[in-house]
Amino acid sequence: MKVFSLATAAALLATSAFAAPAAKVTRQFQALITFYGATPEDTFTQSVPTDGSTFYVFDQSSISKISSQGGATCTFFGIDGSETTVVGAQTVDVGPPQVQLTGSCLAF
Description:
It is a single chain. By secondary structure, the protein is mainly beta. The chain contains one helix and seven strands; from the N terminus they run H-E-E-E-E-E-E-E. The protein has one helix at residues 2-17, and strands at residues 30-37, 44-49, 51-56, 62-68, 72-78, 83-87, 91-107. A hairpin with a 4-residue loop joins strand 5 (72-78) and strand 6 (83-87). It is globular, with a radius of gyration of 24 Å.
């Protein structure tokens, strides 16, 4: 009985040593961000990566609010030094209103 148990234990140990580690699942998507200007013509949306990389905001309108549909935490940096963070699905005031230059988002 001991021989069978030792052989079984050795076989289980040997097979588990060669098992591949579980793959890390990365949640990756594009966040849809809306930038609100003083007029409807100054309002625009931009799809941005959620991997923590820095991206440029491609509009020169002065922005007073930024909103996200959710799923990420995003921080935006304005031309006059503003730093605006949007967590999840919310709308945040930019103070004072200004052109946004760059941003970075990270998925939850």
